[in-house]
Each structure stands twice: as structure tokens, then as C-alpha cells.
Amino acid sequence: MLNYNLPRHLPSAEELPDSDETPVDNELQELIPGLLKAILLILWSERMDWLFAIDMGIYYHPDKPPIVPDGFLSLGVERFYDEELRPSYVLWDENVVPIFVLEVVSQNYRKEYTTKLDEYEALGVLYYVIYSSRRRRKPHLEVHKLVNGKYELQEGNPVWLPEIGLGIGCERGNYCGVTREWMYWYDEQGQRYLTPAEQVKQEVQRAQQEAQRAQQEAQRAQQEAQRAQQEAQRAQQESQRAQQEAQRAQQEAQRAEVAEQRVQQLTEQLRSLGIDPDNLG
Q: What value, to the nearest 5°, has the Cα angle with vertex 103 and ends 102 and 108?
């Protein structure tokens, strides 16, 4: 919330310049915050209460020029101002001070460690982050947290930002075809969130794995069907053999019955002739 005195009648965002017309002097000043925003657009795709702006002016007083950080994050604001989107960020309209501000130091030093630090401190920005890949003896990434009205440098890489629910850090990676050190968002365990390109690649790999598993399952099912068919054929053959055996047994039984009938006939004939068949020996 704003806690400083402002004039009674204030202009709207549409009435204020939407840029300080100062060109960026290094492509990284666009790409680094652009990567952070691209990750958030996927990570917070269902949320409508945040804004991550790049090179957008923050107006804190109608009679003073805006502060234009390379990137900043505000929470608890409308995701989309209207269909034309925000031309600038006007504090007396938004009534929310950005919680996170990023400055990328280029070859032209722009007082990131002095004047801008004091300005963001006075404005009440909770986290002021400075990134410089040109530093040799100091960390490339500095995260300053506002504690009792003064910035305190936080240790570590990444640094967990509990009020945002994300960590911020830097490591080597590839973005836009460039392999170098980039800034990323991290979870509380220090695991880096994937870039959009990495997420697409991961989804493609997952889809390929699923397709391979489906193909393997189809092959296994086909093999099982073939085995079942072979078992059915063997069972049919066994049934046919059993039927043939039963037919042979029936034929043998019939032959045995015929032979027994012949023996009885011969016995009766012998007895009719007065011959005892039991004493023929």
C-alpha cells in the first residue's frame, strides 16, 4: 500500500508517457527478464493476480519521471488491465508496490548499486535483484531484501523468496539458442523450473515414451494372442486325438463283443453235439 503524500488530482496511466525513451544498451536486459516472464506464464497460467513487466515505467508521483527497471513483479493486481494492456504501472491506480524488481547491469553502469538501490528502498520494494555477469570477484547475482526499511543482502544461489513462493538464481543453460548463464525461478528445494522450450522438449520425450510403451504393449498383446491361438490349436489337436482314441476304443470294444458272441455260438454248437467245451483238453 502507498504511504506517501500525493496531489489531490492525479492523471491516469493513459495520460502519462508509456516510456522514458531510453533504449536498452544490451540485449540481455530484454532476454533475461523475458525468460523469467516466460517461465511464469506457464508456471502461473491459472493465476490472474500478478504482473511481470519488462522495461515498463513505474510512476510514483505525477510530477516526477517514472522509474523504469528491466523487470518487475507485482502480486495482488489484475493480470490484465484491459484488452489494450497496461501502458505503464501507476502506483496510485494500482495501489500495490512491486514486490520484486530486477536490474541487469550492462556495459554502461546505470547506478544499479547506488541510486537505484536507494530509490527502490524508498519506494518499499521488498526484493531488489541485481544481476551482472561481468563481475569477477563478487557474485553475479545480488538479492537485497527490505528489512526494517533497509536492504539486506541475502546469501545463496538460488535465494528462496517466501513472500513470492519462488526462488531466484542463476546457472548455465540455453535460451534462444544461446548457451550462457541465465536467471531462473526455483522451487523451495532448489530445483530449477523448466523454460518453455525445455517443457516442450520434455512433453515430446514423454509422448515418445508413451508411444513406445503403447507399441510394446501392442506387441505383447499380439504375442499373447498368438500364444493363445497356438494353445487353442494344441487343445483342438488334443481333443481330436482324444476323440480318435475314443473311437478306436469303441471299435475294439465292438470287436471284443463280436468275438465273445462267436465264442458263445461255438460253445453252444459243441454242447449241441454232446461235447463239453470245458473238457476239451
A: 170
